[in-house]
Amino acid sequence: MAERLLIRVMKGGNHAKIVTLNGKKITKMPTSLENLTGLRSLDFQNNQIFKVCPQLSTLTQLIFLNLGNNFLEEVPEEIKYITSLKKLHLFGNRISKFPPGVCDGLQNLILLNLNNNKLTWLPEEVGRLRSLTYLSLNCNQLTSIPRQLCFLKNLSELYLNYNQLSRIPEDIKYLKKLQRLSLARNNIEFLPEEFCDLKKLRILDVAGNIIQIFPSGFQDLKLQEFYCEENPLFRKEPIIADQQEDLWNLLEITARFIMNQLEEKNSFIMHAIEEYPDIKNKISKGKRCVICGKFFLTTWLECVQFVSPSETWKISKNLKLIPLRVLLCSQKCFSERGPNIFGIA
Ligand SMILES: [Zn+2]
């Protein structure tokens, strides 16, 4: 039947640029597709296709391909030969496999829609889809995303709603053009501090996760919309802090001394540290106390600070204050903290 429908399309000659066979109960793609070498747009959505035909790979002028709402079980490998492809819709299939080689040919792909499939993982090679600006993976079963995804330097919209993600890679900071990020309905507990480097981010949705606290610096993001309902956020109630006496081991005492001397530009220490790259590397991970501004490395007091969201943010209605994670160097600084900082029990 599909062949017949296609022949009807081809009546005007083999020069068809657009073929739309939407909702025709097609189970097998017509092999005569190979005659349509000048085809730019092919729409086979809402059919019953299990497997694409090998002739698909001959459509080297194709820009738009929609195979949404079919019965595909993997991202078709034939697609890698369609190097002209810019928009690919594979939503609403049964896709659980994403062959790594597919990405190599899709250097011009701008949009990839894999919503409503059964993906549990993504290949590292997604990092090779270098033109990608829009990636949608809503309603899959992803438990993690490969860090290579964070190297898609043109990506501006990323949708990962309704998956099983528990963490976001620190490398997220490399998505310099990211404007919209949707992470609703996952199992995310923390957003990494690097998240605050997403200077272009305007819309963030983290509704329905298990976030209690946001990284410090979060309030400086230039968001326009922020959704965070249904998270067990810390509320502004004094949390009884169960803080012990300060007890630092030798590494911590030494690290603090070196880091704070370097801050004060002690020339002897500055010179000496160059001889010890291992130590230099270790202390580069030091953090700063929000009260006294001094450095620490492995021991701190975990606290929460409540700040008002920026007035320019459009936010969830019941969110009056955002809980931010702040770190203090010592009991002394804890006793000098402001009224908006509480210890976390
Ligand atoms: Zn301090």
UniProtKB/TrEMBL annotation:
Pfam families the UniProt entry points to: LRR_8
Keyword check for Repeat: yes
Swiss-Prot/TrEMBL keywords: Leucine-rich repeat, Repeat
PROSITE patterns registered for this protein in UniProt: LRR
SUPFAM superfamilies with a match to the protein in the record: L domain-like (SSF52058)
Domain of life assignment: Eukaryota
GO cellular component, one term: cytoplasm
Full protein name: Leucine-rich repeat-containing protein 69
Naturally occurring in which organism (per UniProt): Dipodomys ordii (Ord's kangaroo rat)
